[in-house]
Each structure stands twice: as structure tokens, then as C-alpha cells.
Amino acid sequence: MDTLLQDLRYACRSFLSRPGFSALMVACLALGIGVNSTIFSVVDTVSIRPLPFRAPDELVSLHTTRLANGIQRGSVSYLDFQSWKTETQSFAAMAGVSGRTMTVTDRDESERFLGALVTWNLFPLLGIDPVLGRQFREDEDQPGAAPVVLLSHGLWQRKFLGDPSIIGRPITVNGAPRTVVGIMPEQFQFPQFAQLWIPLVPIEQASDRNTRNLLIFARTKPSASLENARRDISSVADRLASSFRENDGWSATAITMRDELMPRFPPDQMPARPKS
What we know:
Elements: H1 2-17, H2 19-48, E1 59-66, E2 71-74, E3 76-77, H3 78-87, E4 91-106, E5 109-118, H4 122-126, E6 132-133, E7 148-151, H5 153-160, E8 170-173, E9 176-183, E10 196-199, H6 201-204, E11 212-220, H7 226-243, E12 251-256, H8 257-261
Parallel strand pairs: 5-10, 7-9
Antiparallel strand pairs: 1-2, 1-11, 1-12, 3-11, 4-5, 4-8, 4-11, 6-9, 7-10, 8-9
């Protein structure tokens, strides 16, 4: 105990004699602990616990690749997405996402949120249902369709005080009215920290093959392995590369949803995988 008291007195004297340096060291230590705690919580959620989706082992993400440029997980153009859907054989369903910031205006008060454009089938593909209202319909994800929006539980509570009568009412998103059709479950924010979602096709359908800004998620058929899916998507991408000048040098691959959601670290900082 005497030794501990001596150490504490010495630490206090050192802190008082060099307060700036000591404060910096404490801040660095706190930052390091915070970063490591955050990394552990993410790894615990993604690598250890089951993913919060229906049949998560069937879910994959699809990426473009261009090895000559070091691109191993590239985004996808809308036109390539359409080609992948019609020409592949290993996938039961395929959905697209594009992250955006969106401004929600209520009573002349505007606030920006992270949001996403999504194809109508994204949440059914994941097996996630709204807690209030309904999913997007296929006809709402078409050019010229009536504008609609899905809200996160948090945005609904914060911006609209959890009022259930918001379903079926218009709100202003990016300066235009959109009808609220559903509220997603509490804690659900996909991809990343999205707070609201609008249909993708009416906005992206005019994009060309050089505009690669979509994330693609797919559910494999029960008979298709991950290797089957990789060969299938790579073969289709290679055919597109030989058919379209914009796709020259580009291919594609599939990775598991778990690997997609894992944070990426430099090789020398990779956390150890848990033992099975």
C-alpha cells in the first residue's frame, strides 16, 4: 500500500510539473482505448454473433474488380447490375444500393441525414420487415412511379415524435414530397448508418456503364456454392468486358456478407479470428 501511495504522489507531481504533456498522454490513451473498444464491438457483432438477416449464409455481395488498377471490391454500374440479374444462374435474387445524403424538411426546418437509394427487393432479400407500414412495391421502383420513402425507427422518433399517423402522409425529401410507406425496425441501419431509403431505379435508370456507384447484394440459390457464384459472376462480367468498351479490363467477384461487413484493417493490424 505504501508503494502504491508513493507511485500516486509521484504521478501527481509529474502531472503538475508538465500538465500539457501529461494531458496529451491521457488523451492518447483514452483515444486508443476507445478505438480498440469500437473495433472489438464491430468484430464481435459481425464475426462472432449471427448476422441479423434471414439465412445469412446465402447472402453475398458482388463487386467489380480490375486487378491492373488494384481494384478488388469496386462498385457496379446500373447497366451492369441489370445484365448480372438476367445473365447469371447462381442467384435467387439480386438487389442494389447507393448511399446518399438526403435533406428532410418538416415545418420549414431542414435536416440532413445519411440515406440510401435501394431497389424494391433489398429488404425482402435480407429478410427484414418494417415494424409499421409496408415495404416498397415493385411498381414503386420504376421510372415515373409515385415517390415514396421508408424511415428508420430513430428518424421517425426524433423528427416525427413516433407518430404512427405519419404512414401514408407526404414529407419533403430533397425539396420534393414523398409519401411515407413504412418504418424500419429499431437499430436497423443498412447500409452503414442509413436513416431513410427511397427507390433506386427512378434515379439511377439513366446512368451509363461508366457510372459505377452501386453496392450489389444477392442471395444464392440453395444449390449454388460460393465458388459457383464467383465463377458465374466472373464469367458474365468477362462477357460484358468483351462486349462493351466501358467494361474493358473489368471483371467481378462474390464475397460472403460476413466478409463484406467486417471492417478492413491493414494486414499487420488484422484482429485474430475467434476459434471455432
